[in-house]
Amino acid sequence: xxxxxxxxxxxxxxxxxxxxxxxxxxxxxxxxxxxxxxxxxxxxxxxxxxxxxxxxxxxxxxxxxxxxxxxxxxxxxxxxxxxxxxxxxxxxxxxxxxxxxxxxxxxxxxxxxxxxxxxxxxxxxxxxxxxxxxxxxxxxxxxxxxxxxxxxxxxxxxxxxxxxxxxxxxxxxxxxxxxxxxxxxxxxxxxx
Length: 192
Hints:
Blueprint: H1 10-31, H2 37-57, H3 66-95, H4 121-127, H5 131-142, H6 146-156, H7 161-168, H8 172-183, H9 185-188
Helix pairs in contact: 1-2, 1-3, 2-3, 6-8
């Protein structure tokens, strides 16, 4: 294209890029991808860059109108961007590890057993001995199964997870599941 062909960009650049945004939005709707307002801003920026790339690479020899050429380029760019975003999410999810997952060592502890923290729910329960708090503790304990109460008592007595599993003759998975339930927000929120 020559510099005199800038008129082909006029419809897309008028009124704060209204035509380019309209074209982009129609492509979004066809892609059926849920987008936030921030996503729309990102994609409009991509559309703006793509408009200039299309202008620089468009040739009337290709037989398609500039609008068709631009629409095809935008669709390809948007699909690539969505694919890359999903790919990033998958990589992050592959690296994620549950705090309740047990390790492969002999002790088969979960990550929560190794994370240093000054806060311990059970210690906090023991510290407060006012009557109202004791009622909350009773409510918390009443929601636990017999096995979970046994685990709680052994934890309060200072036993390690490995000792507790041996004493109660339960697997590391069973122990982890019980701990997950005992530490769940639904159960612990009663205490606060």
